[in-house]
Design a protein that fits this description.
There is one protein chain. The chain is mainly α. Helices cover 86% and strands 0% of the residues. Helix 1 runs antiparallel to helix 2, helix 1 runs antiparallel to helix 5 and helix 2 packs parallel to helix 5. The N and C termini lie close together (11 Å).
C-alpha cells in the first residue's frame, strides 16, 4: 500500500512539474521572441500581452496541480504528520517542510521550463533560417525572460503550496495517528 502511494505521489509530482515546465518554456520563448520582434516592429504590445497571458494561464493551471498534489500528499502522509506532532513538531516546522516540497517542485519545473524555452527559441531560429532560406541575425536570448519565467514558477508554486502546508500543520495528532 505504501509503495503504491509513493508511486502515485511521484507520478503526480512529475506531471505537476511538467505543467510548470510547459508554462515557463512558453514565457521564456514567447517573451524573448516578442522582445526581438518588438524591436523590429512597433505596436506589438497587444500580441505580447496576449501570448504572455496564455503562458500565465498555463502556469495557473500548473499551480492548481501543485495544490492538488500537495493536498493529496497531506492526506497520504497524515500518519507521519501525526507522529511528528506527537513528538513535539511545531506548526511552523510542518509548514516549512511542505513549503520546501512545493518550492522544490516549482524550482525543478522552472529550470526545466527555462531549458525547454531556450531550446524552443533555438528551434524557431533554425526554422526561420532553414525554411525562409535567409541568414537572419540570431535572436538574442532575453535574460529577463529567463529570470521572469523561473521566478514566476517559484512564486506560483510557493503561493499554491500555502494552503496544503497550513492544512497539514493544523491536523490534530490524535486524529492523524488514528488515520489509516
Amino acid at each position: 500500500m505504501a509503495v503504491r502511494s509513493l508511486k502515485r505521489r511521484k507520478v503526480r509530482t512529475a506531471l505537476t512539474a511538467l505543467g510548470i515546465v510547459i508554462g515557463v518554456a512558453a514565457i521564456v520563448s514567447l517573451k524573448t521572441l516578442c522582445d526581438f520582434v518588438e524591436s523590429e516592429v512597433q505596436g506589438i504590445e497587444l500580441v505580447t500581452m496576449f501570448l504572455l497571458s496564455i503562458a500565465g494561464i498555463s502556469l495557473l493551471v500548473a499551480g492548481l496541480g501543485i495544490m492538488n498534489t500537495m493536498l493529496m500528499s497531506v492526506i497520504e502522509r497524515k500518519r507521519e504528520i501525526g507522529v511528528l506532532k506527537a513528538i513535539g513538531a511545531s506548526k511552523a516546522r510542518i509548514i516549512y517542510a511542505f513549503m520546501v516540497e512545493s518550492g522544490l517542485v516549482g524550482a525543478i519545473g522552472g529550470v526545466g521550463g527555462c531549458i525547454l524555452g531556450i531550446l524552443l527559441l533555438s528551434l524557431v531560429q533554425f526554422a526561420v533560417t532553414t525554411y525562409l532560406r535567409t541568414t537572419a541575425d540570431p535572436i538574442p536570448l532575453s535574460p529577463n525572460a529567463v529570470i521572469l519565467g523561473f521566478l514566476f514558477a517559484l512564486i506560483s508554486a510557493t503561493i499554491f503550496g500555502l494552503y496544503p502546508s497550513w492544512k497539514a500543520s493544523t491536523l490534530r495528532p490524535v486524529e492523524a495517528l488514528r488515520y489509516e
